[in-house]
Amino acid sequence: MATQIISCHRNDSNNQAIDTHAHVFDPSLGPYASGRAYTPEDAPLEELIAFNQKLSTDSEIGTLVLVQPSPYENDCSVMMQSLRRLKDEDTCAFGIVVLDLDKTTDTELETMHYLGVRGVRLNLQADGKEVNIDKLVLALQKTSDRICHLPGWIIQLFVPGWSWDLLYQPILGLPVPVIADHLGGMLGPSKLPSSLHSSSTSQPGFESLLSLAKQSCVYVKISGLYRMSNELSSNFRDLEPIVRTFAREIPDQVIWGSDWPHTGDGKNRSKDKLKCKETFRVIDNYAIMEQLQTWMGGDVYRKMLVDNPGRLYT
Ligand SMILES: [Zn+2]
């Protein structure tokens, strides 16, 4: 039986799946930042397109959202070149940038908008750094002040699950929606202390995240399961209660991202390894998508792939 993986076409092109989280690493388009924590293998745009087509049951390319990865820090020129190329080829694509707002003019933001950028990523957890909530709240406010006039722009956050308790009030007051990366940082039992093994949905931050999503302040991205669970051999089955709870409680606030090309977890990184390219994880994306479909049910799965991100990315 053919399983629809990421193609959810009806009869019109508005119903394609949207991969809301993928990266391009291409040294031929521009250099990595000298202060980066690691050097990834190459992952050029052509390979991303091929991956997306392969995952689709009809080999059509869906909509892509390119997310600025940490090795480029806040130099988004590789992403801008990629977005321009996709635009020239009439492929629908968007971008989430990382910026030094003090050095970015409003005109530059408008050019980015024209190329498909729809948000700013605050990745304070990149490369395993501790999260400073006070600093993050200031960054949230400063970023939303700069982007709230731009149509459809969002803030994307990759933070540990517990931080939603502390971010609850600040996010309630923000004029722009927030995307919570990688299950909002919620961990499966394989990564939680034993006291939470039987109730991963009671982990700190979970209720706050759900509540923010129910109030349409937050979208939860179903992505990067391998970052939230150690159960590679079962395709991260210990995340089932978390994903099922999201599907049941916030069916209109979940979106999906492949997180291609599946970068590593920051362990074993050091400055003297920068000359060696860090390999990507080997992930069974087909099995994960089939599992998500089973856990969420066909209707919510479709909302996650098509309808919900379709409201965000226009
Ligand atoms: Zn990623």
UniProtKB/TrEMBL annotation:
Record-linked SUPFAM superfamilies: Metallo-dependent hydrolases
InterPro entries given in the database record: Amidohydro-rel (IPR006680), Aro_Compnd_Degr_Hydrolases (IPR052358), Metal_Hydrolase (IPR032466)
Residue ranges of domain Amidohydrolase-related in the record: 18-313
Pfam families: Amidohydro_2
One term of GO molecular function: hydrolase activity
Protein name: Amidohydrolase 2
Organism phylogeny: Eukaryota, Fungi, Dikarya, Ascomycota, Pezizomycotina
